[in-house]
C-alpha cells in the first residue's frame, strides 16, 4: 500500500534536538560518500572495461536494479564512527565489531524511535542518494504498527522533504512480484517486512518447503523475489533487533546483502557499533519523560506486624529470608538474612515483633516442587518468592485514598488544559478486585469496595470534584485482566502475565488507547494484576499505586515504565505533547519509604546496565569546549576528554564506584579537584555535574513538592499593565549583510581549516571504493589513471547556494579567494562540507551583527494569556523555589529559578526582593519569546525601578554567570545581541546581570 495523506489529529515536531542528534549520528557515519556515487562507479567501471574488456554482468544489471552504492572504505567509515561516538559521549571503538557495518541506535521507550529511523531514511536519501530501505521487524503486530506510523507521518515527511518522493509498502508473500517495482524504482522505496518472511532453514533444500521469497518465480523471469531485493543492496533497518538475534535470523539479514544495517532498540541484547544512546538518565535530563514523585504510605511502628519473604533455599542448612530488621538508630528496614532452622527470628532481626517465630522445617526444590519453609508458631508454608505479613489492609486502603486524592487534585488542575488524567492500580491477585463477581460491573472484591467508598468520600470534599466527575465510581473504574474461567464454578485463575489469556487484556488497552485519552470516556482508574509486559503504557497515566509487595528485581522500573511518557493535551490542532515539568509528573503511591524506593529503583537500573544516580565516565562529555584562548565554543568535550576527567577524579580519590568520597568537599575553603592544566577551565562545571548526579534528581518525595500562590491583584494594577504594554510590543527584523565583510571573514575561516585529504579511488571488477589519503590516482594493476576528467564534479555553487541562500557571485568570490579549489577537485565532498560549515558559521555571526528590528502592532504575549496562565494550578519542587519576603512586589509568593541554591537566578531574585527601589519584578514566562535570526529567545526578568527624578524605569534583564562573552556559548551571545536591538527599538532598557555586576 502506497503511503498517502491522512489527518490523524497527532502533531509531529521536526525540531526535537535529541531526535536530530540521533539522525545525524547515522548520517555522519558516511561523511565523504559522494551523492552521485553511481555516476562515479559507472564512469570508472567504464574506464576499466575499455582497458580490460567487458565486465561480467551482475544480478543488478540483469534485473535493472537501481540500488545503493556505498563507495567509502572501511577505514574512513571507522574514523567517522569514532568521531560520532566521541561527539555523543560514547566509548570510542577501536575497530568495527566483526568487521561489519552494523550500527546500534539505543533510544529509551517513548522518545520517538520510529520517527527517528523513518526520518533518517529521508536524510540518507537527501545527502547521499540512498533510495532502497527495508524495515525488518520481529512480528506482524509490530509490522502493522510501523505501517500505521508511516501512514500517520507521510504528509509530515512530504512537507519536510518535497524533493524526495517515496513509496512505502508491506511485503506480502502472495504479492511477491511487487519486489520488481521496489528494485527498479528511481525514487525512495521503503519496504516493511517481518523476519519470518525471509527466515528459512538452509538445511531444508526442498523448494516446496522454502519461503516464497526464496522460490524462483515465473512472474520474475525465473528469479527469486530475494534476488530483486538483494540486487538493490538495501539499507536494512531493524526495529527491536533483540528479538531477531538467533543464528537463523542473522543469516536471513545477510541474505539481503545490505549496504549497511541500522538497529534500533531501547534494550539491545548484543551490542555492535553503538552510534547514539538515549538512556533513562538522558531522557530525564532532557525532559523527555515525566518526573517521578514518590508518595509513601509506610506503616509507622513497623515492628508491630512480622514480615517474612522467602528469597531462596540452596540447601537444608539455611534459608535466605527478607525480614524487617531494627537498625542501630531504632528504625526498621528490610534486610536479607540467612536463617537456620529453629533460630529465633527476633534474635536475627533485633525486632521483638518476631518473638516465637522460627523456621520449623525447610525443603529444597525437588521433583518439580519449589523450595519452601514452614514457620512456627502458626504453621505458615512459604514457597520461594512468596511473602507473609508486610502491608496490611489498612495500609492498602490508605494507599487507595492517597491515589484518589492525588487523582482528583490533578483532574481539577489539568482539565482546563485539555489533559485527561488516568490512574493505575496494580493488585496482588484478581480476587482482590473481582471478589465473588465475574466482571467489572459486579466486582465486589476488597479493593473495589474500598475504592468506591474512598472515592465518594474524597469527591464530596469539593464542588469542583463533584462537577468534574459526577458519575458512579463503578463507571470510572475498569479492570484489565484476562478472560478468566471458573474452576468448579467459584475459583478464578490469576493471570500471571505469561499466558495467552493475558494478551486479551493487553490488546484491549492498545486498541482503546486513544479512547482512554478522550475526556468523554468516563474510565479514569484502571486495575490490573499482570501489567508489566510491553504494551501497558499510556501517556496520561499520572498516578501508579502498587497494592502488593514489590517483588521481581525489575518491578519498580517496569512499573514506572507504564506511565513515564510525556502527557498529551487535546487542542484545536489535535493531541500535543506537554513537556512542562510542573505538569509532567508521575506520582507513585508505594508501601515503602521514599528512600527505600529510590535505592531499590537505582539497584534495578544498575542491574540492567544503566548507571543512574551516580557519576559516569561520560558525565562531562556534553560540557562546552573552550578554544586555546579560553573562549567557549558550541562544540562538546566528547567521551575521550570526559573519560580522562573521570579517571583523574578516581585516581585522586574524589569518586569511587561512581559515588563521591569524603574527599569531595566542594564547599570547603580552598577546595580544588587538582585537575590537569587542560581541564582546569572546566572545574566549576565538573563540580556542578558531580553534585547533580544523585538519584534525588530522578526520584523525589511528594513532600518536596510545593504550590505557588498567585498575586492576581498585581496583574490588574495600572503599574503592571503599563509595564506589560511596554515590554511586550512586537517587532519584526531584517538583516543587512555587508558583502565585503562576509566574503573576507569566510575566506579567513576557510584558510584556517586543515588540509583536505585527497581521495584515492580503487576500481576493480568487483566494484569501486573511495579512500581518503594517498595519491590522486586510480590504480589498475600497475597502471595509474589520473582522476581528472574521470567523472563529473558536483555543482559546488548550487549545493552551497541551497545550504546558505547566498548569491552565486558571493560564493564564487569566497571560493576563489580561499585559494583552495585544487582540494575540491581532489576530494569534492569533503571540501564542500568544510566550506559549507565555515560559511554557515560566519554567516550566523555576521547576520546577528547586521540585524535591525522594527516595531509593529500587536503583543508578544497578551496580558489576558498571562493572567490565565497565572491562575492555572501547577506543581513545583522546593529546591527550585525562592520564597519572596515582599510578595506585593511580584506575581507569586515563590519565584522559580534554574540551577541550585547558588545559581545567579536565585541570587538575583533575592537581590530584587530586598532592594527598596524595586517596585515590581517578575520572572518572565517561557512563552514570552522574541524572534531572533538564531532562534526564539526567552529573557529572564521584567522590572520596574524607582529612581530620583523619575517615577519609574522599565527594565528587562538576563541573568548569566559571567560578563565575559568568551565564557558563554556563541549562540547565547548571538541571542543577547539580538535582544539588545529588539528592546532598543521599543525603548526598554535591557542588559545582562551577573552576581558581580547586577546592572540595576
From TrEMBL:
<dbReference type="InterPro" id="IPR006935">
    <property type="entry name" value="Helicase/UvrB_N"/>
</dbReference>
<feature type="domain" description="Type III restriction enzyme C-terminal endonuclease">
    <location>
        <begin position="889"/>
        <end position="992"/>
    </location>
</feature>
<dbReference type="InterPro" id="IPR027417">
    <property type="entry name" value="P-loop_NTPase"/>
</dbReference>
<dbReference type="GO" id="GO:0003677">
    <property type="term" value="F:DNA binding"/>
</dbReference>
<keyword id="KW-0540">Nuclease</keyword>
<dbReference type="InterPro" id="IPR045572">
    <property type="entry name" value="RE_endonuc_C"/>
</dbReference>
<dbReference type="Pfam" id="PF04851">
    <property type="entry name" value="ResIII"/>
</dbReference>
<dbReference type="GO" id="GO:0015668">
    <property type="term" value="F:type III site-specific deoxyribonuclease activity"/>
</dbReference>
<keyword id="KW-0255">Endonuclease</keyword>
<feature type="domain" description="Helicase/UvrB N-terminal">
    <location>
        <begin position="88"/>
        <end position="268"/>
    </location>
</feature>
<dbReference type="Pfam" id="PF19778">
    <property type="entry name" value="RE_endonuc"/>
</dbReference>
<protein>
    <submittedName>
        <fullName>Restriction endonuclease</fullName>
    </submittedName>
</protein>
<keyword id="KW-0378">Hydrolase</keyword>
<dbReference type="GO" id="GO:0005524">
    <property type="term" value="F:ATP binding"/>
</dbReference>
